[in-house]
Amino acid sequence: MLIGELSRVTGVAPRLLRYYEEQGLLVPHRDSNGYRSYPESAPDRVARIRELLDAGLPTRDIRELLPCATDSGFQHCDHSRKVVGDGLHRLDDQIAELTRRRELLARQQDAVLAAPFDPDL
């Protein structure tokens, strides 16, 4: 399968597929004419990459996880638990920070709504 077909099948732009290759996430074969040739399993791999990116994992973590990928998820590899755990920890930290910011902004909103209206401002 050539890059154009993989792009059509997955809905992922060729430029992004080439980026995945640069990051070591996709490994095409090169034909004698230099064209990228992807295996039949490439659409599933691209879907897995997209899913992990959507979950917030950086490409370096995804590169570590992909060797542990199975059709139904991930097998237990030495580093898979750490990579996923670290990703969850980062998300928990981000959620806590967003919650803190929301509480600060909500207090400001309460103060604004409680203040008397001054039409001259």
From TrEMBL:
The keyword RNA-binding does not apply. GO terms for molecular function: DNA binding; DNA-binding transcription factor activity. CDD domains: HTH_MerR-like_sg3. Pfam families: MerR_1 (PF13411). Residues 1-68 form the HTH merR-type domain. Keywords: DNA-binding, Repressor, Transcription, Transcription regulation. The keyword Aminoacyl-tRNA synthetase does not apply. This is MerR family transcriptional regulator. It comes from Nocardia terrae. The lineage of its organism: Bacteria, Bacillati, Actinomycetota, Actinomycetes, Mycobacteriales.
